[in-house]
Write a structure and sequence with these properties.
single chain, Rossmann fold, five-stranded parallel beta sheet, four-stranded antiparallel beta sheet
């Protein structure tokens, strides 16, 4: 039983909707706990003891185990019989165990990464890719149909792309022995490629024409590079939306017309402004500069209007933490356009950082910025997915390379990857014994086996709460607990009295749950790790 199902029983049987129920930090306190008796005593005019006893009486026949009451706190213990039923389910349902239909029929759009196409994919964008993909898989596990989308800021007139084009021109000119300005490793590579492809063709062209050609070339190569990096990292998008296409297809001009029709734009100093302050923003925003060029914000507004027009039931924006200030203005623009802003969910994810033995690493190979490909090469995509999803979105994902490169269980990513293999080995060993000596009826599990069964039974609640709370780190924490329990069981010398068939079912069920959890995190569940 999950906490949501238990909350529904509180609402139905005790007229207590929205009761807070938490996972117990210690199995000695039960699987779940609630201080409902203490919290409601004053409002109900009864003692916490009286309320607790009433709750036990009314919930008892519906809860698969016993309900304890200690100092005004309810403790929900699952029975061994319930654990057996859950193990049977987990074995029978395989990868579907713990999945639900709560979001069945719902179409969700998740936009994430959307990195500037100005170079190789940064390490921080890799964190956003891992976290965003884990969110998508959690939503799919709950039954939603999820579309993954990357928004490409590809206007060659943007200051960032223009600067990249200028640096490529510098490197290109340097290939022919001309004086050069600043460049970096990426722009020097592109400058050399452009020289080999086009020869000295651009040396005789006007400066603006030369920069435009270099910018267009650099944009194409940057997008190719980032797509390839994401593919290697196991992140694939259903659609790549270009800002330039929004303008070409008339989305930006239609957005201007819609906002003007609603009386929410005005001209000032030759620029077109949107009255976002009427909808909670701290300042009105420019949509079109005096030069006649649409702003970055205008493209965002048009993009979000188009998102809403495509009929999704819910729309997620997974942004870097640096975009927090854009949330209020984007919501204001949605309201200005007459859209349901509550259909949009804005999630911000912190960056990633590297260190070695606690010392920060701020530069990549060759003195350039930290890029995803270099770390995939050093510690592997699976390990990076682990470290990037194991921390809450609000915290920086710090990867200590001294730990992340260890081939032992002091490296939590290694311990997680080892889990399916360890469970499979234990299962094969037990199957071998069973084939040699048929089992006889015996007794109960030992403590280690019971803890593993307990974790399997908690998987449906874990994955449901991770999806509801948008918290992939709950899955990583669950995997760590499962790995720890499995390791301790493999080293446990205490004899087991449980029938061999029951122990095999425990290992199979645990293997199924481990594979499902690791898949959500983007980590390969290899039984031969």
């Amino acid at each position: 039983m999950t906490r949501s199902a238990l909350r529904a029983l509180f609402a139905q049987l005790l007229d207590a909707p929205g009761v807070i129920i938490t996972v117990s930090p210690d199995a000695n306190w039960g699987e779940f706990t609630s201080n409902f008796p203490l919290q409601s005593a004053k409002a109900r005019g009864q003692s916490a003891e009286e309320i607790g006893q009433t709750a036990r009486e009314r919930l008892g026949s519906h809860w698969p185990g016993r309900i304890g009451l200690e100092r005004g706190r309810l403790q929900f213990f699952m029975s061994d019989e319930h654990f057996l039923l859950e193990l049977e389910r987990a074995t029978r349902e395989g990868a579907h165990y713990g999945a639900s239909n709560s979001l069945s029929g719902q179409r969700y759009l998740v936009e994430y990464v959307s990195s500037d196409p100005t170079g190789p994919l940064p390490l921080g964008a890799g964190r956003h890719a891992a976290w965003g993909e884990a969110l998508c898989r959690l939503l799919e596990y709950a039954g939603a149909r999820v579309s993954r989308e990357f928004y490409l800021n590809d206007q060659t007139t943007s200051s960032k792309l223009r600067s990249l084009g200028e640096w490529v021109v510098n490197a290109y000119s340097g290939a022919f022995g001309q004086n050069t300005g600043p460049s970096d490793a990426f722009s020097r590579t592109l400058g050399g490629e452009l020289a080999r492809r086009d020869g000295a063709k651009w040396l005789q062209s006007a400066p603006d024409e030369r920069i435009e050609a270099a910018t267009t070339f650099a944009l194409e190569r940057a997008v190719e590079s980032q797509r390839a990096s994401l593919e290697r990292f196991g992140t694939r998008f259903d659609s790549w939306v270009k800002e330039s296409d929004l303008e070409r297809d008339g989305h930006i001009s239609r957005a201007f017309a819609l906002l003007a029709e609603r009386g929410l734009t005005y001209e000032l100093d030759g620029a077109l402004w949107l009255r976002t302050t009427q909808f909670g923003d701290d300042a009105d925003r420019v949509l079109r500069r005096a030069s006649g060029r649409a702003t970055y914000f205008a493209g965002d507004v048009a993009y979000h209007i188009w998102k809403a027009e495509r009929g999704f039931d819910r729309i997620f924006n997974v942004w870097g933490v640096g975009h927090k200030t854009y949330i209020a203005r984007t919501k204001a623009a949605l309201l200005a356009a007459g859209l349901d802003a509550d259909k949009f969910e804005f999630l911000t994810v912190e960056e990633a950082a590297l260190e070695r033995d606690g010392v920060p690493i701020r530069l990549g190979l060759g003195g350039g910025p930290l890029v995803l490909d270099e770390e995939v090469e050093e510690i592997g995509a699976d390990a990076l997915h682990w470290f990037f999803t194991a921390k809450p979105a609000a915290k920086t994902a710090v990867v200590d390379l001294e730990i992340a490169t260890r081939d032992d269980e002091s490296n939590p990513a290694y311990a997680a990857q080892l889990l399916p293999s360890r469970l499979a080995t234990m299962r094969r060993q037990l199957e071998g014994r069973l084939s040699v000596s048929p089992e006889a009826e015996q007794g109960d599990w030992n403590a280690g086996e019971r803890e593993l069964a307990r974790l399997v039974a908690l998987w449906p609640d874990t994955v449901e709460s991770a999806a509801t709370e948008r918290a992939p780190e709950k899955i990583a924490d669950f995997v760590s607990q499962l790995a720890r329990a499995t390791r301790e069981l493999s080293r446990n010398t205490a004899p087991s009295l449980a029938p061999t068939s029951r122990r095999l079912e425990l290992l199979r069920a645990s293997g199924n749950v481990a594979a499902s959890a690791l898949k959500i995190l983007g980590v390969d569940a290899n039984e031969r790790f």
